[in-house]
Amino acid sequence: MISGFFGILLREIRYGLVLSGGGFLPTAFFAGAVLILPFSIGPDPELLKQIGPGYLWLALSLASLVSLERLFAPDIDDGTMDLFTIGATPFALVMLAKLLGQWIAVSLPLLLAMPIAALMLNIDAQMVLPLMFQLWIGSLAMFLLGGIGSALSAGVKRGGLLIALLALPLYTPIVIFGAASANQVILGNGIFTQGFLLICAISLFTIVLSPIASAAAVKMQLD
Predict the structure, then answer these.
(1) From the CB of residue 55, how many other CB atoms can be counted at a distance below 10 Å?
(2) What per-residue confidence (pLDDT) applies to 21?
(3) What is the pLDDT of residues 101-115, one digit of tens each?
(4) Mean pLDDT, to the nearest integer, of 57-66?
(5) Distance between CA 28 and CA 139 in Å, rounded?
(6) pTM metric for this prediction
């Protein structure tokens, strides 16, 4: 069971980073969203510094949607998911491996882009690493919640809009808490503020909930 879990996890990481390259699409979207901000509001350094931390969370929430449409659909179409259902590894554990593997494939390129994005928004260099850590944990919660929407829309052609309709309302508290915790970091109040601890709690909750809910939704698609 454990070997099956790690086998699926490594398969998803390899597929996301090497075979399909889909892990880099959210990074490109994230970079484009950050790049366009100075052109839309002007290059005022103080204004960028003031709204930059919260805007990073908004850009992250939108970028996390990019890779969700094809999270489960290819395995359903080619019959791989049917094999997973009859395998020795519990199906909920298969879903957890797929979600974590795809999240790792997406988050690694994002981690490389986040420092550049923060510096473009005139955020002090010493604040970049704390913000990166907060965004990284927040991306886990977003991806796991979005995975539920992806599983529900896996049988729908061009289900990206449906995923956005399902996932964005769930992202709202994460973005609110994330923006508040990022502002606390900028003010020098540390990383583990109340808002960030709530995001950590959401991440732990979704690690348990998302695989179970995704497994049930995918089984409905297979039936």
Answers:
(1) 19
(2) 60
(3) 989 998 988 988 888
(4) 90
(5) 15
(6) 0.89
